[in-house]
UniProtKB/TrEMBL annotation:
Entries under SUPFAM superfamilies matching the protein: DPP6 N-terminal domain-like (SSF82171), OmpA-like (SSF103088), TPR-like (SSF48452)
Pfam family, one: OmpA
Keyword Signal attached: yes
Entry's localization field: Cell outer membrane
Cited CDD domains: OmpA_C-like (cd07185)
Stated name of the protein: OmpA family protein
UniProt source species: Chitinophaga filiformis
Signal sequence region: 1-26
Keywords from the UniProt entry: Cell outer membrane, Membrane, Signal
Start and end residues of each OmpA-like domain: 556-677
Length: 677
């Protein structure tokens, strides 16, 4: 039972035949290699294929080597042989698809995408190939933006062999391993089957057995009882919440009924589910009833996950045309009498055209599983799924949980730490146990009020600016009628907060810091803006008057440097608009360069609307503009401003006179007189 592919169609239909293999003497080497491969003895088949290839470079020998290394998870060697294979004219489209998968396993995503593009040109609409191609693009993005957190190889439990499928029971860790075990499993003296009890032909290692440990170090690891571990594979343990019922996957040597003595008799090692019940009185496990939907001569049933209450069992099987393709995830529920009902396919929201594996629910109802049928990094990837409005929303868990190799068997133990298995690079053995604890996701926001510094009353329509000092990003917010503002903050950064409003001195550089915070929080900062007291000069003549001892001040022509025609206000409003501010800033720069200059400003409206309203509006605009100059550091003594409303029209468009919009526009003007004395 290979831990990842024991449910693939090739193995589901495998029937291992009695009798000793005939020697290669007198037969073609390639035939003997094929015989070994048929029985999944790839470790034995590969040297024979190599010998055959050296004698003659045939497509059959190259494919045997490529497929053999692929099944043994030697991705580097497999890539080299698939490259040779697809260069041969006799290669098939399936060879190209396998080659693309191996390239993905080697993180060669651009090359894999090229191969897949060619494959899809020959076999358009292939769902697996389309998914793999999408995965090539996604993998690059996931690698560039890994999920933050702590990844740990459970070295104390892992060995140089294959260790996988984590489960938990009453403080113990249970997992499967094909490390060497005791020597009691001897074959019978007259054993006439090629299925040996001490060695699994597929890998050349021991069979998988379940181990338990009281901690995460090797000093506590021990094989589970013989009543649980049989002569062949035992793996994938899953427990009810009380720890008294266990479902797990096993293989057993079985013979079809009706075989005749003296003839070759077919045997099977397909997977089935078994149950163990804990006997409190005996302090031992007792075998429970067989799962009614095992059919070991037709297909494998594996990867069990039992719900906490023991009433729903999830598992993996390949029922051929009944499923979505490859191995699918099914579930059974118990009726009132405790009998398992017919299996139910979890449907296309979960199952794909590929192979789904290792189903599991956490305590919050989130569903986890592995598949090679969705866009992923390569091989099996772990996904999480949540049901929203009756439909599954499925998300790839990204890097570092997923890698370019197989990542599977997710498990939780009442915390947010994910335990899983992987044969990724850098492990201790062919498969290792890992755990990943994501970094705590901190969420920060900022809220506050803009307030009048003197009266402590809220200021509506104030412009609040938040600057991220580390990224330079700028966000703006205009306060509501109660002076409120709010921003979403990036985690662990530093900000500067500014507040501005016409007729008020701005408050700038207020510090907002999330660095050092360890819990999500809503931060509060209020901004206090001081009102600028301004005066408008009544009845000031447009032309400057003589000054004793100096004479008439000299007017300054700023044509080309400052254009008052660019000073506009929104309809019915007095705030200085951003575009007007840019023009005013030109004049302010000139005033700072020429400290002897003074400015006389006048603000006018057209005749529409009430006379009193227009006068007040123009005066508010005069005050707002004057405040802008003061806020920029221009001395109040150098400035005069007055609003005239509609009292100084420059054309015939008085009250009641029909005029064009252009004629009214001519009256809506702002005038500046700059002079030097």
């Amino acid at each position: 039972m290979n831990r990842k592919h024991y449910t693939l169609p090739a193995l589901l239909s495998a029937m291992l035949v009695m009798g000793m293999f005939t020697s290669a003497s007198g037969q073609y080497i390639i035939k003997e290699a094929n015989n070994q491969a048929t029985l999944y003895n790839y470790a034995a088949a590969i040297p024979l294929y190599q010998k055959a290839y050296r004698k003659k470079e045939t497509v059959e020998a190259a494919r045997g080597l490529a497929d053999g290394y692929r099944r043994l998870k030697d991705y580097t060697a497999a890539a080299g042989w698939y490259e040779k294979l697809v260069a041969m004219p006799e290669h098939t489209a399936a060879d190209e698809l396998h080659y693309a998968g191996i390239l993905m396993n080697n993180e060669q995503y651009a090359a894999a995408k090229t191969v897949l593009t060619g494959y899809l040109g020959k076999t358009p609409g292939d769902k697996i190939a389309e998914s793999m191609k999408a995965g090539c693009d996604s993998a690059v993005k996931w690698l560039a933006a890994p999920v933050r957190g702590d990844m740990e190889n459970l070295k104390g439990l892992n060995s140089v062999w294959s260790d996988w499928s984590t489960a938990f029971r009453q403080g113990e860790v249970i997992f499967a391993s094909d490390r060497p075990y005791d020597s009691l499993r001897r074959d019978a003296l007259f054993n006439n089957t090629n299925i040996k009890r001490k060695r699994y032909g597929y890998t050349g290692n021991s069979y998988l057995h379940l181990y338990e440990s009281k901690g995460l170090d090797s000093g506590h690891v021990m094989t589970m009882a013989r009543a649980v571990n049989g002569d062949y594979h035992s793996a994938d343990a899953s427990y009810t919440a009380d720890g008294k019922t266990c479902y797990y996957a096993v293989t057993n040597l079985a013979r079809k009924r009706g075989s005749l003595l003296g003839k070759e008799q077919p045997y099977t090692l397909n997977i089935e589910l078994r149950t163990q019940q804990w006997d409190d009185n005996k302090g031992a496990w007792q075998q429970g009833p067989a799962f009614p939907y095992n059919e070991i001569f037709n297909y494998s049933v594996g990867d069990p996950f039992i719900s906490a209450d023991g009433r729903t069992l999830y598992f993996v099987a390949d029922y051929g045309e009944k499923g979505q393709g490859g191995t699918d995830i099914y579930y059974c529920t118990k009726d009132a009498s405790g009998q398992w009902q017919q299996p139910v396919n979890m449907g296309p929201g979960i199952n794909s055209a590929g192979n789904e594996r290792s189903p599991m629910f956490d305590s919050t109802g989130v569903f986890y599983f592995s598949t090679d049928g969705r866009p992923g990094m390569g091989g099996l990837d772990i996904f999480r799924a949540v049901k929203m409005n009756g439909a599954w929303e499925v998300l790839n868990m990204g890097v570092p949980v997923n890698s370019a190799q197989d990542d599977f068997a997710p498990a939780y133990n009442g915390t947010n730490t994910l335990y899983f298995s992987s044969n990724r690079k850098g492990g201790k053995g062919s498969d290792d146990l890992y755990r990943f604890t994501p970094a705590k996701i901190l969420v920060f926001s900022l809220e506050g009020k803009a307030l009048n510094k003197k009266t402590n009353t809220p200021l509506g329509s104030a412009e609040i600016t938040l600057r991220n000092k580390e990224t330079g990003a700028v966000k703006k917010f205009t306060t509501d009628g109660e002076g409120n503002f709010h921003f979403a903050l990036d985690s662990l950064s530093a900000y500067g907060l500014d507040g501005e409003k016409a007729l008020f001195r701005p408050e700038t550089g207020v510090a907002v810091i999330t660095k050092g915070l360890t819990e999500s929080a809503v931060l509060h900062r209020d901004l206090y803006l001081e009102k600028i007291e301004v005066e408008t000069v009544e009845n000031k003549p447009k032309d400057p008057v003589p000054v004793k001892g100096i004479g008439v001040p000299k007017k300054i022509d700023l044509a080309g440097k400052f254009n008052p025609q660019n000073i506009y206000f929104d309809l019915g409003k007095a705030d200085v608009r951003p575009d007007a501010a840019r023009e005013l800033d030109k004049l302010i720069s000139l005033l700072k360069e020429n400290p002897s200059w003074r400015v006389d400003m006048s603000f006018h409206t057209d005749s529409r609307s009430d006379d009193s309203y227009n006068l007040k509006l123009s005066q508010r605009r005069a005050a707002s503009t004057l405040a802008y100059f003061l806020a920029k550091g221009i001395d109040k003594k150098r400035l005069t401003a007055k609003g005239y409303g509609e009292t100084r029209l420059i054309n015939r468009c008085a009250n009641g006179v029909r005029c064009s919009e252009a004629e009214h526009q001519a009256n809506r003007r702002t005038e500046f007189v700059i002079f030097e004395r």
